[in-house]
Amino acid sequence: MTIENRDDAFAGLMKDLNIEVQDYNHNELSKLDYQRLAGLKDEVEVLLTSLFDTLKHRYNCDMELPLVIDGFPRSDIDVLAVRLIRTKIIRLRNDHKCILGLLEEQLIKQLQAGSGSAPEAQSARVAPQRIIPFALVKSVAESSPAQKSGLQENDKIVVFGEDVHAGNHNKLSAVGNKVKGNVGKEIVVEVLRGQNRETLILTPTPDWPGQGLLGCHIVPY
Where is the Nas2 N-terminal domain (predicted)? Predict the structure, then answer.
């Protein structure tokens, strides 16, 4: 299947699922202002959550489940649909990383300039809290919800659940409250891994062999 045909197939699949997914041109993104980029960031996060929800509830799958057994495609899963959705999720994660990088660049410029319109100045006061890590992942249990989301040991959590960050996590109690209030629901988590910023979708659940809803140990950073 060529890239063009794969894109057409994905567009048809999304139409059937009544999900609107937009492609983002990274060169065009670099021309946008802070407010527009912030809006696109939220938009991409909504799309990611929707696609992960579709994978889980419609196709009973995630990003890790093998689609081939003994050299043959699985018969209990719509392999083509899952591959298309996974590919789009990877693309959207890259888009999200690009947008976050551009937001950080513009924020630094605004702070260095010490000026800007009222909305931009307000964003500049709030945004630093969303780029500073506030928690460190000390360990991740095997086969846990945290591991399935892609969370790794030594990841630094920057934003948890879209609104918990360095300025309001309250000694991580806000993270605990967010987890307890979203059992079985997707939570967008932004982490710093080395020099890269990653976006993960974490689903708290008690239905796994270990203890807790996440299966990871995090400490204040």
Answer: 35-109
